[in-house]
Design goal:
This protein is mostly beta strands and 165 residues long. It has two domains: 38-100, SH3 Domains (SH3 type barrels), CATH 2.30.30; 103-159, SH3 Domains (SH3 type barrels). It has strands spanning 5-6, 9-10, 38-42, 47-50, 59-63, 69-76, 79-83, 89-93, 97-98, 102-105, 110-113, 122-126, 131-137, 141-146, 149-154, 158-159. Strands 8-7-6-3-9 form a five-stranded antiparallel sheet, with no helix packed on it. A five-stranded antiparallel sheet has the order 15-14-13-10-16, with no helix packed on it. A two-stranded antiparallel sheet has the order 1-2. Strand 11 and strand 12 (122-126) form a beta hairpin. The chain starts with a strand and ends in a 6-residue tail after the last strand.
């Protein structure tokens, strides 16, 4: 404990405390109790993205591709607030979403490799916008399958995987 005296006046003792680092608590969805944010994918071929969590809310836009990866940001009853790779978001009914993990290729002509390195042989080259099924990830690479091919994509060229995964 440190006592401070300024100009002959005794001030309240100051307690010197080492900084405390608190572990960041995982936020969980109020409906599913799953981590939020998290990634899901489109189960259906089309879904309305609404301004709020109800069919009475205005439709802002429509998702049109089965398998599109989406980030869940919030849950309310049977509705999930999601965003896509471009940061566009809104509310989608949970029945239209799947826990199946997919990623979106963002780099045009991205090489799908037979191993997790730049030196591995290219099995195919994927156009930007291709959706691939996610298997697992390492720090810089993710194992995926697409159109009968299985291989590795660099994280830097895809969207749909959190940094800590």
């Amino acid at each position: 404990m440190k006592i401070v005296i300024i100009l002959g006046v005794l001030l309240a003792p100051l307690l010197v405390v080492a900084p405390v680092v608190l572990a960041q608590e995982t936020v969980r969805g109020q409906v599913t109790n799953l981590p939020v944010p998290r990634f899901v994918s489109m189960k259906s071929g089309a879904a309305n993205v609404r301004r709020g969590p109800s069919t009475s809310n205005r439709i802002d836009w429509e998702l049109k591709h089965r398998g599109t990866p989406l980030r869940v940001l919030a849950e309310y009853r049977e509705w999930f607030r999601v965003e896509d790779a471009e940061g566009e978001g809104g509310w989608v009914h949970s029945a239209l979403l799947s826990s199946l993990r997919t990623v979106l290729v963002q780099q045009d002509m991205l090489a799908l490799r037979d191993g997790p390195s730049e030196g591995a042989a290219a099995l195919a080259h994927l156009e930007a916008g291709v959706i691939a099924r996610l298997a697992t990830c390492q720090p810089d690479w993710c194992s995926v399958s697409v159109e009968g091919y299985k291989g590795w994509l660099p994280r830097s060229g895809i969207w749909g995987v959190a940094a800590e995964e």
